[in-house]
Automatic annotation (TrEMBL):
Keywords: Signal. PROSITE patterns: PROKAR_LIPOPROTEIN. Pfam families: PQQ_2. Residues 70-169, 270-388 form the Pyrrolo-quinoline quinone repeat domain. InterPro entries: PQQ_b-propeller_rpt, PQQ_rpt_dom, Quinoprotein_ADH-like_sf, WD40/YVTN_repeat-like_dom_sf. Residues 1-25 form the signal peptide. This is PQQ-binding-like beta-propeller repeat protein. It comes from Fibrella rubiginis.
Length: 399
């Protein structure tokens, strides 16, 4: 049995186990309602939410960071695809890496959040949660925000890993957070979209959907957009949580939405990619370029890039949805692509990280890891990225 198949089966087995454990939770959820007096109890807050002053660090090496289910975080040379260094975590990595303050932050499928020196690959610190950390962290103003399947959402000091505050919910967190307006927004496996104060972790509001949330929120123009497994995309007021509009898709929405200009782009599990008016939710176009989709789109230079479970990366017109080109790998694509002026980087469940030339549509190089790559790669220099990214991608959340 090929190694990439073994690791893909392992990933899907973990994924299926996670969802089956949520069956009871999803069945008990009610409609989309505003809850100003939640029935959840925050964990005791610390006396002070102050953080260690972060250090400004510039990374000069042309590096691309990619994580694999083989338990390694790789720093790949963007010119050759060869590793400059490799960091071994405690177990497989689903979380997408994020770059801030000269460090790479990510979670593991064991129970740790890591901070690794971006230049050397040496561990700076690690924080132990109760169980799996599938989510990608968000790093803002010296704080690392990340949720865990242990039902707790954490705020950590970015320089030391010290816990600043935490919030305990009824179920875990798979979604990655977004930060805006002094608030942290994140979806829960209990079907709630939460808004916490960034400094203290006080619950500002929460709004229910009808099923568990794997999608990560994006905040643009005073609205929070998020998909749910109830087959709907929600736009709610960022300050109050009050719904502005709700759009029904043809299947569950596990991917994270992206807003580029006045258009919201999202993908459903059945493989349909939608372009909606961000203000009203009115559909502009919908297209199904390939197979099912669990990963999130990236919008760059008039093109929507998205991976599919039919093993292909698709480039479709952001204006019409017409397929512009396709690149085939050997297995499913779950991660979000990372796009530069010349290259699209993406991981595949065949265990490889690909660097695909946007002009020739051919791979410049590919690097073989020892496991499936379901997380999203990110470059050391944020300025090399082009386009608009979802919150789940490290590219969209670099400091």
């Amino acid at each position: 049995m090929p190694f990439f198949y073994r690791f893909a089966v392992r990933r899907l087995w973990l994924y299926a186990g996670l969802l089956s454990g949520l069956a009871g939770a999803g069945a008990s959820l009610s409609g989309c309602k505003q809850h100003n007096t939640p029935d959840l109890t925050p964990v005791t807050q610390p006396a002070s939410g102050s953080v260690t002053p972060p250090v400004a660090v510039s990374i000069t090496a042309p590096l691309l960071y990619a994580a694999s289910f083989d338990g390694n975080l790789y720093a790949l040379d963007t010119l050759t695809g060869q590793p400059r260094w490799t960091f071994r975590a405690d177990t497989a990595i689903r979380s997408s890496p994020v770059i801030a303050y000269g460090l790479v932050f990510f979670g593991s499928n064991g129970q740790y959040v890591y901070a690794v020196d971006a230049e050397t690959g040496k561990q700076r610190w690690r924080f132990k949660s109760g169980t799996y950390v599938y989510a990608s962290p968000t790093v803002v103003d010296g704080r690392v925000f990340v949720g865990s399947i242990d039902k707790v959402f954490y705020a950590l000091d970015a320089m030391t890993g010290r816990q600043l505050w935490s919030y305990k919910a009824a179920y875990g967190f798979y979604s990655s957070p977004a930060v805006a307006n002094g608030l942290v927004y994140v979806g829960g496996l209990d079907g709630n979209l939460y808004a916490f104060t960034a400094d203290r972790g006080a619950l500002k509001w929460m709004t229910k959907t009808n099923d568990y949330i794997l999608s990560s929120p994006v905040v643009v123009g005073g609205l929070v957009y998020i998909g749910s497994s109830d087959k709907k995309c929600y736009a709610v007021d960022a300050l109050t949580g009050q719904p502005r509009w709700v759009v029904q898709a043809g299947s569950a929405i596990e991917a994270s939405p992206v807003v580029a200009g006045s258009v919201l782009y999202l993908a459903a599990v059945d493989g349909t990619v939608y372009a909606l008016d961000a203000a009203t939710g009115q559909q502009r176009w919908a297209v199904k370029p390939g197979g099912g989709v669990n990963g999130s789109p990236v919008v760059a230079i008039g093109t929507v890039y998205i991976g599919s479970r039919d093993h292909a990366l698709y480039a479709v017109s952001a204006t019409t949805g017409a397929v512009q080109w396709t690149y085939k790998t050997q297995y499913d694509l779950y991660g979000t692509p990372f796009v530069t002026g010349q290259t699209v980087y993406v991981g595949s469940n065949d265990g490889r990280v690909y660097a695909i030339n946007r002009v020739t549509k051919q791979a410049r190089w590919s690097f073989q890891t020892g496991g499936v790559v379901v997380s999203s790669p990110v470059a050391a220099q944020k300025e090399v990225a082009v386009g608009t990214y979802p919150g789940v991608s490290g590219a969209g959340k670099s400091y």
